[in-house]
Amino acid sequence: MGMAQWTFLTNHAHVLMCISENPNALLRNVAVQVGITERAAQRIVTELEEAGYLEREREGRRNTYRLNTSMPLRHPLDTDYRVGELLGLFAHPKTE
């Protein structure tokens, strides 16, 4: 019998991580990285935007995203922690 497919982080967290790494990312690329549909990625970005976790700015035909890293995590057990702390744990070091 195979192992159940689950992860410790939600798709919302994964979308935030992708956008954190590339604020100009196309949602179709984010969707591929996260393993969800483009429509699901759009829904998640809309939910994150409505909740104040990110802002979307239109630049020509593309979007640029700005994260609000001071927002608290949403689960009652996690509200003492900020999104920026979570993202910092998973940030890839910048190479020059």
From TrEMBL:
It holds the Pfam family MarR_2. It comes from the Bacteria. Coiled coil: none annotated. InterPro entries: ArsR-like_HTH, HTH_MarR-typ, WH-like_DNA-bd_sf, WH_DNA-bd_sf. CDD domains: HTH_ARSR. Residues 11-60 form the HTH marR-type domain. This is HTH marR-type domain-containing protein.
